[in-house]
Amino acid sequence: MARTLRVVLCALSLCANAEGFLSTSSSFAGKPSAVGPAAAAAAGSRAQIAAGNKRRQRVTAADAASVVARGASSSATVSAGGLCMSEGSAKTIVVLGGDGFCGWPTCLHLSDAGHDVIMVDNLSRRRIDLELGCESLTPIQSPQTRVKTWKEVTGREIKYVNIDVAKEYELLLKLFKEHKPDTVIHFAEQRAAPYSQKGSREKRYTVDNNTGGTHNMLVAIVESGLDIHVCHLGTMGVYGYGNSGGEIPEGYIDVTLPGNRQQKILHPAYPGSVYHTTKCLDALLFQFYAKNDGLRLTDLHQGIVWGTNTPQTVRDERLVNRFDYDSDYGTVLNRFLMQAALDIPMTVYGTGGQTRGFIHVTDTAKCLEAAVVNPPAANGPVEIFNQVAETHRVRDLAQMIADKTGTKIDFISNPRNEAAENELEVKNDKFGNLGVDFKSLDGTLLEEVRDIAQKYRGRADLELVYPTSYWNKNRVKAATDGEVNGAPEPTRLFVDVKTGAQ
Amino acid sequence: MARTLRVVLCALSLCANAEGFLSTSSSFAGKPSAVGPAAAAAAGSRAQIAAGNKRRQRVTAADAASVVARGASSSATVSAGGLCMSEGSAKTIVVLGGDGFCGWPTCLHLSDAGHDVIMVDNLSRRRIDLELGCESLTPIQSPQTRVKTWKEVTGREIKYVNIDVAKEYELLLKLFKEHKPDTVIHFAEQRAAPYSQKGSREKRYTVDNNTGGTHNMLVAIVESGLDIHVCHLGTMGVYGYGNSGGEIPEGYIDVTLPGNRQQKILHPAYPGSVYHTTKCLDALLFQFYAKNDGLRLTDLHQGIVWGTNTPQTVRDERLVNRFDYDSDYGTVLNRFLMQAALDIPMTVYGTGGQTRGFIHVTDTAKCLEAAVVNPPAANGPVEIFNQVAETHRVRDLAQMIADKTGTKIDFISNPRNEAAENELEVKNDKFGNLGVDFKSLDGTLLEEVRDIAQKYRGRADLELVYPTSYWNKNRVKAATDGEVNGAPEPTRLFVDVKTGAQ
User: Fold this and answer.
1) Least CB-packed of A163, B42, B285, B379 within 10 Å?
2) Is the ipTM of this complex over 0.90?
3) Is B54 a catalytic residue?
């Protein structure tokens, strides 16, 4: 059962490609590269995560030993720069949800790095576009064309299989038995919080699809009898934003119970939407299957993803990644950049005081590979990483772009039921210790996204950027009343007993 | 929207009926009423919960005030003895899963107490009997005959509706809209841990049915716009047995986070089977819908239920409650009593060192009514009760019955992946404060169950009491190897940091 693998983190394809990808030449319209007060404020907010970044050491013997110790059946070694593989270290990887915004760049990244990739998708994301009357701003190709193009460009094969993970259990099991993957990456979940709150149908679909799909995958792995490592894309939202009142650790938290008993527990879940809730349900399923069946599981609590293309997707226009700008699926920074590119006001919800974690889509793929090549030991607890590069307040991001471009900001009623303002301090050492070097949000990267938005502006339906999903009936009323800043603090389970602060 | 209700806890029907029901006359064969050393040991184990019982005050002004304070839209008053209603306090109650072992006695109890009951069931429990080749030891009637008989006996009407809660969302919503219930009691979940571990199909069914059904119910309530209070039957198993190292509080726990921050959190979940896991998933869904939509939710973490009949089911043989004795659905004490009645060895798993909470089925119904008439305030956190009367080690229960009856004990390989021995100390003050007086396991009650088992012994298939569901491949191997006491400690997330004890 034990597999002998040797994985080296080095300075090859990943980083080189990343640099190549970043060589955009255009600058922002308006005030190019100006760093205004809002940008400084954003930098301040970003500093919350800096302590973690400082602790990150790229090449130390201790880190290398730590990485080796984690994988019971692999012998990974760490060196400077990035990820590449020595002979014989290629893995067979099934990517569930491989056609999506994070899935597709991850498939390409892993294939580019020499792994054998089987991409599974039922194209539900494309069907939801039809349902919402939306379309990716970038003209994405069919999965068949995508993998055909990738083969033309690189000579490497990605196999595409259409399976509904939540419904077609027998097909999923058959796939595992036939391909005997080392790893299953699980992106096959409905991933938009606003969509998950849209109405009864969408709430139910999100739970049935996400929880049912996750559980089917776990059951199929147990039934297959194979030693398959699962890497799951979770979200920072499982923690509940900022309500623990201190730095958010990576998955587990040390607590003192009554009687002065010291214990380590899974970080309490406090999700803010049906979508986020499904990721918490996943976490409990993972905990059980790790304990009961000894499955190797890695859960990646990711921040909000921005960016579009990666070093792989830019190699041919037919490989372009999707770009969502609508209020359901468009992540906040991408929406702002698209609005800036089209010179329409940026829509900030409520006060914009929400502090969130952010990560570029290229880094998502890098993190996934780092997780894939460093599986936790069997029979150990679920490995949890915070997959986030930096933190910012939403209004600071908007102001930063406004300072560069002159784009106006519209503070509109917050459709979400959430704290109007929150702090967020996140530990993200683990990926740093594995050699992942996060790209920070800066002018060059922002320009790249803005260029994409400008290039395809003719394809945009500007009405779609305004929210149509409301978290509850009070939020509908607030929108009707034109309320902007008065989002009530939702009832808090996390109460500071000493101060009474929520 | 506000309903004016006046509910009085008094000494009427409930307790009088309960006493009538308990007037069994036969005594145990073997050593009648002898209290051996094992019974004393059991009493010692039971003492773990005694502190809570002592704290229980039946009639205090403070309690009454507390009860009134809980229900924002009701004005409940507490007096001694039991539960009954003053004029105008009848509730309309939908009981999901009303045909089951706990569901049916609860329907009758609530109807008997004057509430209007709509019983919903898709008869899945009966279908699973067909699938497993099992049958209730007691000859249960169809739901149609059950409700017809109840009307003949009492003049009271229970409406029966066949809906699959996990699949027929629109019918469920229609039901809510038509009947505008004050309360929905949710029993509609696959409830056997061994069945949930039987194989891929059963694992998947348990998650799809339980999580999908719970979520459908919540979504339908939100969509209906009605102020419906949910009472859900959960399980003590959500806490993970005994691993928190101290008394288990009712749902929430006070912890100290790093930086000496005092907080109250939902008790960490650490379930031991797919079935138990679904109850933890429910808890997270409840937390979200209470926070986001202000739903009133009560979650009852119940111990292992024993007993068969209640003061209502004994009124006509056609009302008899189901009695499961098979290894999948038979709860442990009922299985032992049935084995004693048939003079076959009692099957104790592993060392029998598992300490569990127990409750008689009559008390389940009483607790449900207490919860129903005392809804939590809207927009508050989920109300959580520990619905358990006493705690015992499994081997002590077996020994107690052996001492009375001369029945032998077979210690067999534990099919479950669990700690071989655990302590369990449970807080159960809340129901005491609401006037619920738990029946303790004693000779009289045990005899009643034994009489049922003897009466219907001709219907039993004795092969069915031996386990056929194993938690994982290691447990299958242990059974094959004939291992009895060596059940390994499963990997623990709860580690005492100071002592290293798991």
Assistant:
1) B379
2) no
3) no
> Is B88 within a domain?
yes
Give a three-class secondary structure readout of B339-384. HHHCCCCEEEECCCECEEEEEEHHHHHHHHHHHHCCCCCCCCCCEE
Confidence of residue A262 (pLDDT cuts 50, 70, 90): confident
Q: What is the mean pLDDT of residues B73-95?
A: 58
In chain A, the residue whose alpha carbon lies closest to the alpha carbon of B498 is A262
**How is residue A377 written in tokens?**
């030991």
pLDDT in tens, B436-488: 999 998 878 888 888 999 999 999 998 999 999 999 999 999 998 887 755 55
Helix axes A103-112, A13-21, angle to 10 degrees: 130
Our count of domains for chain B comes to 1
Tell me, yes or no, whether A112 lies in a domain: yes
pLDDT at B48 > cutoff 90? no
Task: State yes or no: is B235 an active-site residue.
Answer: yes
Contact B287 A270 (CB under 8 A): yes
Q: How far apart are CA A349 and CA A280, in angstroms?
A: 25
B486 belongs to a structural domain: no
- The DSSP bridge pattern shows strands A7-9 and A84-85 to be antiparallel
Residue A212: closest C-alpha in chain B: B208
Domain enclosing residue B252, as ranges: 7-481
Q: What is the CATH number of the domain that holds B461?
A: 3.40.50.720
Q: Residue B54, class by beta-carbon neighbours within 10 Å (0-12 exposed, 13-18 middle, 19+ buried)?
A: exposed
Phi, psi of A348 (to 5 degrees): -100, 130
Catalytic-role residue among A279, A366, A430, A439:
A279
Q: How far is A164 from chain B (nearest CA, A)?
A: 15
Nearest chain A residue to B474, by CA: A293
Beta bridge partners of B7: B85
